[in-house]
Each structure stands twice: as C-alpha cells, then as structure tokens.
Design brief:
4-stranded antiparallel beta sheet; 37% helix; binds pyridoxal-5'-phosphate
C-alpha cells in the first residue's frame, strides 16, 4: 500500500490514439439523464444527426450504434444482395470486408497504391477489363462467375481515395459506391468534404476515431429514400403505425441518446481537433523527412487528409531495424505504436475470396508503423516520441559504421 519506489520514475505512457474530452459532453449527457431520454429515441440523436449532416454538407444522416452497423446498412440500402461481389481494398480494418459477408455477399480484394495506400483505382479498372465480362447488363467476375454489384472505397487513415475516376468506373459498370469513411470525418477530396457528394458513406465514432461517442456511427447520404430506409432498418424495421408491426427483418442498430449527446459535445470541437491532427502530422514529417530509412506519409494533390493516424514506413536495411523491432523498443520506453492491419485477403475468413494482383499491401503491412496521434498529444510527449525514434535510428546506424 502506497509503497514508494526508489528507482527513477518510469516515463509516462504515451498511447496511440485516445479520446479528447474537454467540451460540453457531460452537460449534454446530463440533459439526457435529467429528461429521461437515455435510449435510442431522444432529442440529442436528432440534433447529432443534423449537426453531422451540416458539418459534412450532406442532406441526411442516420445515427447507428457503431460504424460497422453503418456500413452494413449502407450496403443493404444500396441493394447489395446475397451472392454478389463487392470490390474492397486488401488493406483496411476487417469490418469493411465483414459487413459484405453479413449480407452473404463476397469481397473481391484489390490492391492499394504505393504512394497514398488507398484503393488503386487504375488497377481496379484493369481488373474489370481483364478479369471480368459484361453479360446481361451485369459485371461478372470471370474467375468466380459471380456478379460484381458494388465497390467500397475506404479513405484509409483519413486520406481520401481518388473518387472521380472511381465514380466514373462505377457509372460505366453500374456499381454502387459505399464509402467507408470511418477514419475520414472532415477529410476533403478536391476541396469537398468526404460524404457531401457520396452516394452513401459510413462514419465511425469508436473510441480511437477523430470524434467519439464511445461506440457509434453515422450513415450519410443525399438520397431521401435511402435515409428513410436506413432509419427503418436500424429501428428493427418498425412500421409507422399504432400496431407494433414489423414487415421486414430489421436490426437494433440505433445510437442511444446519451451517446448522441456525447457526440454533439465532441462535434462542437471538431475544428480544433482537425487543427491538432494537422500540427501533429506536420511536426512528425518535419522531424523524420531527412531520417535515413524512414518514409513519411504523402498527400495526393486531390487530398486534404485529416491524418487520423500518422504512419511511417521503415526500410529495415537503412533504418537498421524493422517496424516490429521498433514497436517493441518503443513499448519498452512506454510509447505505444501499432502496425497496419493484416492483409485482408490473407485472413483465414477471406482466403477463399478472389483477390486481384495484391502486391503493394504486403510491403506496407511489413514496413508501416502508426505513431501516437491523439488529438491531445502534447508537444513534449511528441518530442519524446521523435527523440526516441531518432536516437534508436542513430544507434543502429552508428553500428553500421561509415
Ligand atoms: C473504425 C472502422 C470501422 C468500424 O467502426 P466501428 O465503429 O468500430 O464499428 C470500419 N472501417 C474502418 C476502416 C474503420 O477504421
């Protein structure tokens, strides 16, 4: 009990990405508690939906219990059906692919590009030209014989996908576009916020996302019929009648009012969060861009990335250690980092799904490391991350000799 330790104080823990609570979150949650609006109906849900739609610039927003549910329902209202195939990048969080499987549809994995790590749109076109045929007004995957009906671009780490050519391909082949914008709230494509011009997009408010409700998500669309249907399906397909009738199989996917209240408080501060993320990214880039063996992230000329997570790539030969070794060394120094997700097409659950020339994902998976990127990361904590990495790199480079 209260034992004093004599050895030097352990340096404080620097987490990868944690929430920043400093606004009206508690006030709004208390409003909900005081008025008994705690569950999935309530004024804060509507207010949060309206505020988010306004922020993004889209007409409609439907709050869900998490981002995965938002994507699941977005696929459903887009008309993706059992046995269809959906093009998904091989580098993403597993939820992107899982939601396709929830419908009994199958992901088809496409590579990401080397520079920005986003779905490789020219390669996707190449796949459609070389690996598919147009038959009875449908795009058929020659290898599997299945219909490809949709594509799910993922704006990875908050950097937007090149959407114009992607929508062009989608129009040519009648594909629905369901954007996984979980990591990209506030990101802009050619000056326009992700979600404003989307057919339909899903956002996430998980604990490590730009803004959080603990768990939560949002479907954003400009189509009123889709928004209405999304609201219906996420509310157990409850019919608008006095009788408790449910004519379809729905889902219990709505966001509780208390969490929406928290989201409102978070959203009020989003501009300062975005500024912080930008400053964090700029400082890392400044520190590492000349460092041997480190490649800093790039931004495409169409992109205004929110740098949700800042990820470097390590060249083992020149840096002197690989990404996992650096991860371990940083962990020993109480700094949390994280590798990129395991390539989706190599996961057990997806081994049998089709993938087209997935090459770049492997290298990114091996070399990438996400650095502490919390909105509230202090200057001195970021300095410690930078100095520790530079020091480790000096040490290994010195061992190499001249
Ligand atoms: C966070 C995330 C999701 C899912 O969000 P949850 O709210 O955790 O369900 C989906 N896709 C990507 C790319 C994500 O980063």
């Amino acid at each position: 009990m209260g034992t004093e330790t004599n050895h030097s104080p352990r340096q404080s823990f620097i987490p990868l990405c944690v929430p920043e609570i400093r606004g009206n979150e508690l006030n709004y949650i208390k409003e909900g508690l005081d008025t008994n609006w705690v569950s999935t109906a309530g004024p804060h849900v509507t207010r949060f939906e309206e505020a988010l739609a306004r922020f993004v610039g889209a007409r409609f927003a439907v709050a869900t219990c998490n981002g995965t549910a938002a994507l699941h329902i977005s696929l459903l209202v887009s008309g993706v059906s059992q046995g269809d195939e959906v093009i998904v990048p091989a580098l993403s969080f597993v939820a992107s692919a899982n939601t396709v499987r929830y419908l009994g549809a199958y992901p088809v994995f496409v590579d990401v590009d080397k520079d920005f790590w986003q779905i490789d749109v020219p390669k996707m076109r190449e796949f459609i030209r070389n690996g598919c045929r147009w038959h009875n007004q449908c795009l058929i995957n020659n290898t599997t014989g299945r219909k490809i009906t949709a594509v799910m671009p993922v704006h990875l780490l908050g950097h937007p996908v090149d959407m114009d050519p992607l929508y062009q391909i989608a129009r040519e082949y009648g594909l629905q576009v369901i954007e996984d914008a979980s990591e990209a709230l506030g990101a802009k494509y050619k000056g326009i916020k992700i979600g404003r011009d989307s057919q339909i997009a899903g956002f996430s408010f998980n604990g490590n996302k730009l803004i959080t409700t603990g768990g939560g998500g949002m479907i954003v669309t400009n189509r009123e019929d889709w928004a209405t249907r999304a609201r219906y399906l996420t509310t157990q397909a409850k019919e608008a009648s006095k009788e408790l009738v449910h004519n379809e199989i729905g889902y219990n996917y709505r966001l509780p009012n208390l969490l929406a209240a928290m989201g409102l408080g978070q959203l009020e501060q989003i501009e300062s969060y975005l500024t912080n993320k930008k400053n964090i990214a700029a400082k890392y880039t400044q520190a590492f861009k000349q460092c041997r063996g480190i490649r800093v992230p790039r931004e495409a000329d169409w992109a205004d990335s929110i740098s949700w997570l800042y990820a470097i790539m390590l060249d083992e030969a020149t840096f002197g250690m690989d990404s996992r070794e650096l991860l371990d060394k940083l962990r020993q120094r109480n700094i949390e980092t994280r590798p990129m997700w395991y390539p989706l097409h190599r996961l057990k659950s997806y081994e049998d799904c089709y993938s087209y020339k997935v090459e770049n994902v492997e290298n990114i998976y091996r070399q990438a490391l996400c650095l502490p990127s919390s909105v509230g990361l202090t200057e001195s904590d970021q300095d410690r991350v930078i100095e520790t990495i530079l020091e480790l790199s000096d040490r290994t480079n010195a061992q190499d000799g001249p």
